Amino acid sequence: MTKTNLNTPIAPSHLQQRSLETVWHPCTQMKQHEAYPLIPVTSGKGVWLHDADGNCYLDAISSWWVNLFGHSNAYINAAIRDQLEKIEHVMLAGFTHEPVVALSERLRNMAPGTLGHCFYASDGASAIEIALKMSFHYWLLCGQPQKNRFISLQNDYHGETLGALSVTDVAIFKQTYAPLLRQCTHVPTPDWRYAEPGESAHDYAIRAAAALEQHVAENYEQIAALILEPLVQGATGMGMYHPIYLQRAREICHQYQIHMIADEIAVGFGRTGTLFACNQADIAPDFLCLSKGLSGGYLPLSVVMTTDTIYQAFYDDKIAHAFLHSHSHSGNALACRAALATLDIFEQNQIIDANKIKAAYLNKIATALAAHPKVINFRNCGMIWAFEVETEEADFAATCFQAGLKQQLLLRPLGRTIYFMPPYIINEQEMDLLVNGTLQILDTL
Ligand SMILES: *Cc1c(COP(=O)(O)O)cnc(C)c1O
């Protein structure tokens, strides 16, 4: 271990080594960094990240799906700076402030259905914990304490904390911790890659919904909620499915009196081509979880929106009927201002329409990619593209990541699935670079 003077700036050339000496990086086998160097990022602008050695990388995955309008966005920067001069943060129990009120009003007006109240946390996983606890507590308050089980979709991902991991079904993240987790039933995924040959995505979704109905019909008395990732199952490798499944799931939840929790942490704010994925099925969940793009990817912020029926069940003279859950940074003023600025950009620039044009362009230039002999299941939903690569490479994800850097691309495959989830400000020239660079990678691997 080297002793370092803590007050002097760190020379960029020392960042890699000093990071390895003291930072435990997320979702990383740290020993792999003996072979693969960390990338010390010194600045970013638009879709580009710049490193200490003067390289730049096109952030094709929006820094883990959070960034919507580019790095160092002038408009969001200005809003945060302005807020910084007023109040950076105040506890949200007993206090309130303009950014959190304005954000809650705007979210209520945008969200599907009538989701009247917003409960804030900092990360996606915390939002999931909140929704699960609220759902259970609601049924408890309604005199149905036996409704304490949750169901989710096969291959769903909802985060890494114990409650969120319990409803997750991605083995690599979950298996090790199984003894710590609550039982959860995962009903068959509607992901169309599982369809029989000749079966349409629509018909397969209907078949998956029938399996859901059968499970719910037999177990609804014990089930508090169905939680799902609407339209795109992200972490499992961008599994996509037909909106009819959401419609059927909504009907089934109504019919058997169980809550529907829509985890739009990854897909909310335009990712699937509509503001929310639920819009494509014209449904409203009982709980809507949002994070990632909510603050434009700037600051940790998440929210659980819920119906008046649920809110009212907690509204009582008895303290114990309240939702006694808190996070220190709940409703952080700077994060809420970043979110308000993000929503401004959506409105002022008609982003949803603009994205349709961008997506059409990318689909047009990606025909060679879709037809590449190593590529299967090429798929697109809104501003998400994904495909599997037929490869013998044992550690394809790591090899492809390294090959991407040589093409100035930040790609981080999920297993053998390469995906693009670029910031919405990506332009045609940058899309050309992304597609051509990816073709180069496929030809060299
Ligand atoms: C990322 C993600 C989460 C967890 O959010 P964190 O902020 O990483 O805790 C939950 N659900 C989905 C669908 C996600 O993509």
Please give a structural write-up:
This protein has 445 residues and is an alpha/beta fold. The protein folds into two domains: 77-349, Type I PLP-dependent aspartate aminotransferase-like (Major domain) (Aspartate Aminotransferase, domain 2, 3-Layer(aba) Sandwich), CATH 3.40.640.10; 350-422 and 434-444, Alpha-Beta Complex (Aspartate Aminotransferase, domain 1), CATH 3.90.1150. The longest helix is centred in the middle third of the chain and has 19 residues, at 201-219. The strands form four sheets. A seven-stranded mixed beta sheet has the order 4-12-11-10-7-5-6, sandwiched between helices. It has helices spanning 12-22, 62-65, 74-84, 98-110, 124-141, 162-166, 171-174, 201-219, 244-255, 308-314, 333-348, 351-365, 367-370, 396-406, 428-444; strands at 41-45, 48-51, 56-59, 117-121, 149-153, 185-187, 223-228, 232-233, 239-240, 259-263, 287-290, 302-306, 375-381, 384-389, 409-410, 417-420. The radius of gyration is 22 Å and the shape is globular. Bound molecules: pyridoxal-5'-phosphate.
